[in-house]
Amino acid sequence: MLVISYIYVIGAAQGLILAMALLRKQVNQTSNRLLGVWMLLLVTDLAVKVVYLNDQNTPLLFLYGLIKLFPFMYGSFFYLYVRTITTKQPIRWHDCVHFLGFLTMLGLVLPSQFEAVSYVPWWEAIFDWMLYSYSVSYVLAGLVTIRRYRSSLDQKLSNTDGISLLWIDVMAYFQAAIWLIALTQWLLPIEGYNFWMIYVAVALWMTVMAYLALNQQSIQPVEKLRPPEHIEDERFPEVDAKLGQLMNQEALYLDPTLTIGKLSMKSGYPEYLVSLVINQLHNQSFREYINQLRVEAAKWQLQQPDNKKTIIEIAFDCGFTAKSTFNTSFKKYTQMTPSEFKSKQFEAAE
């Protein structure tokens, strides 16, 4: 238990430093303040657990009973953090509804913390069920929000290389792992794998986030395309023909800053209609549609024996902005890396 106490102390210290820095950080201000408050709650949670582990008869024992309710807020904080950082939607008073689970349990538990009762309160029997169903639902909502944001990026931008979501991904993976540990500990008790291990993962997560969150970039929200209720399907062929003309004759896909908005303006059709044509007729997102055209252009250059450009130069010529994205897209559509493709072309020529 003493070793776990050290881990908790390190995590709490990291969390406290992170919270203070986040509350002062100007980038993604609303979401950072949310994350800062969340970190302070976790610091308090870990600190009280350290006291309890080292002295189970501490006069602060009533605090240990109260912080058992903190996990009712953690899923809500995760969801609100993801929502604010991907949509820039401000926090309003009505967002207090996301903490209704915590407030409800606080109202049930608080009286028993200050009164001596000789019976087991009725809510004890459903405490775990309420905790996991309530909190895990918010974690899932946060994961869905991240997925929708990524989908919106694919539908609006041809290049997303400058948008780093690493810290959000790490946060999501850790949240999923922490709640998976909690669920398995509850449903499948294993000797030596107990409640305290959950907070070892929490302390580790706080340490990792201390670095990633402070180096986060500003994220711009992306509006989801909303088509009207009645879609004019008869225009699909003419829109597709126009897109083909723009790609074949003007090679718009070579523009690394191409967006669905730019393509819409060039085509003369609304964004939602251009997006629907790409999605339904080509069964691709906007980014996939453009990147496939870029890969075809790169293949043509790689097949030219007198082309002296390097592979990365060809990638940039064809509209890609990062080597990793080019390699991933190229392999997706050819089942080969650019280097392998080039070698096979020269072997065939010889």
Structural overview:
Helix 1 (2-24) runs parallel beside helix 8 (195-212) and helix 12 crosses helix 14. The protein has 15 helices and no strands. The chain folds into 2 domains: 2-215; 233-349, Homeodomain-like (Arc Repressor Mutant, subunit A), CATH 1.10.10.60. It is elongated. The model has no long low-confidence stretch (mean pLDDT 84). The protein is an all-alpha fold and 350 residues long. It is 68% helix and 0% strand.
What are the key terms here?
15 helices; 350 residues; single chain
What is the string of SSEs from the N terminus onward?
HHHHHHHHHHHHHHH
Discrete helix count:
15
Relative strand content: under 5%
Alpha-carbon distance between the two ends? 69 Å
Q: What's the main sheet like?
A: none
Query: Low-confidence parts, pLDDT < 50 over ≥5 residues?
Result: none
Structural class: mainly alpha
- Residue-averaged pLDDT: 84
> What characteristic shape results from the CA principal axes?
elongated
* Tally of distinct domains: 2
How much helix is in the residues? 55-70%
Q: In brief, what are we looking at here?
A:
The chain has helices at residues 2-24, 29-54, 61-67, 71-87, 100-114, 127-156, 166-187, 195-212, 236-249, 260-267, 271-281, 286-302, 311-317, 323-334, 338-349. With 350 residues, it is mainly alpha-helical. Helix 4 (71-87) packs parallel to helix 6, helix 6 runs antiparallel to helix 7 (166-187) and helix 12 crosses helix 13 (311-317).
